[in-house]
Specification:
- It is globular, with a radius of gyration of 18 Å.
- It has two helices and six strands.
- By secondary structure, it is mostly beta strands.
- Strands 1-6 form a two-stranded antiparallel sheet. A two-stranded antiparallel sheet has the order 2-3.
Amino acid sequence: LISLRSGEPIAMAGLWESWTHPQTAARIRSCSIVTTRGNDLMKPIHDRMPVLLPESHWDEWLDRSNHDTEALERLLVPAPSSQLVVRRVSTFVSNARHEGPDCQAPYEGDTA
């Protein structure tokens, strides 16, 4: 379980699109989380991590009229390791059908 050391919610950079399928005329909505290279805390877990946006950059990221790609690209960096906390959780979380608080239960050996 990865969280901000401050306990505040994490805001991740994302992209979304809504378009009409050219053959079926169905309205398609899609989204993605933007990733970057893993910071030192994340590297043992994965080589990539989501781009975490501090509140000071929310307006810049969400401004649809902002086409300054160089400025936006400067936001696509790993969050400082010092801002994050990693806590090992139960393997219960490994099943996509599992939801709820049990997914955050502390690790106590393989019990799932």
